[in-house]
């Protein structure tokens, strides 16, 4: 996935897309399809049928919502259980069961953890988050991040499972731009250069 418009929210969304594909592929042994289009949104939301959200805060602040059709959630859960060698008779068949929603919650937890690590490795910025939890949902619930400004940047990524069932990731960041600082010898050199300019 190569993005033409190189804004921070787009670059971060690309990292998120790569992480989601990695985490779910590793856990299910299957390949996911990612739509080659990134959608700009006015807000992020929890949407039917099964949704999970997690807020992250620190050097940068944002919110991740993941929304699964019940077919996608059940397929990912079942595929993962079979991949792990769980007997068919022990695998839940109700997409709204605790087993399925707990599985989705754990996947989102792995996704946000790996996402934060990749952002830190790329930009040197860190954040923390609470444990995400997945819930069955019957209607859309709009979500906003808690910042001093109402301005936020939102994107949606569209995925399909191996069987073609849809699920989505929606990410919101506070109004921010990650601007790399070029240095020859790291942050110590940067500090020295700034002091020379000021004094």
What does this entry look like structurally?
- With 199 residues, the chain is an alpha+beta fold.
- The mean pLDDT is 91.
- A hairpin with a 3-residue loop joins strand 4 (50-58) and strand 5.
- The strands form 2 sheets. Strands 1, 2, 4, 5, 6, 7, 9 and 10 form an 8-stranded antiparallel β-sheet that branches.
- It has 4 helices and 10 strands; from the N terminus they run H-E-E-E-E-E-H-H-E-E-E-E-E-H.
- The longest helix is centred in the middle third of the chain and has 26 residues, at 98-123.
- It has a single domain (8-198), classed as Chemotaxis protein chec.
- The protein is globular, with a radius of gyration of 19 Å.
- Helix 1 crosses helix 3 (98-123) and helix 2 (70-83) crosses helix 3 (98-123).
- 32% of the residues are buried.
